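On clarity, I found the account of how folds are encoded harder to follow than it need be. What matters is that the chain and its backbone geometry are given together, residue for residue. The format is easy to grasp once an entry is in front of the reader. For illustration, here is how one protein appears when written out as sequence plus structure tokens.
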Amino acid sequence: MKKFAIALSLIGLLILAVACGSKTTDTGKVIKSAPAGNNLTVALATSDGVLKHGNTEFMLTFTDSSGKPVDVGAVALTFHMPQMGSMAAMNDAAIFTTTDTPGVYRGKAIEMAAEWQAQITYDGPKGRGQASFPVTAQ
């Protein structure tokens, strides 16, 4: 009877360990990545690897040199298009929510299809940093 109770307890602990195991967030297919200071890399990704206009959801992931996601605190991303001719410069700021994985942020933005400059900043446990890269919204 004692062996049965021990076995049942071990099975219960195993089930609990699996249920409470580390949660990971699917970051999708990377569209662009760039160095972000402090030995970090930032990557912009979507489920299909294509950034589309119309408030499409995307993921912004900060990783260390080993590729592990790293919490960087507060993040901001502005899609910037410089002035062209008589058209004024445009800025489309992303709105972020956190995910179950520190260092992975879920965002929405991009009002129109065009060539944009993604301007990313962060401020938190890894200090302050920034990154910038061109990206096309379809």
In short: The chain has one domain: 24-137. Residues 41 and 67 are 8 Å apart (CA to CA).
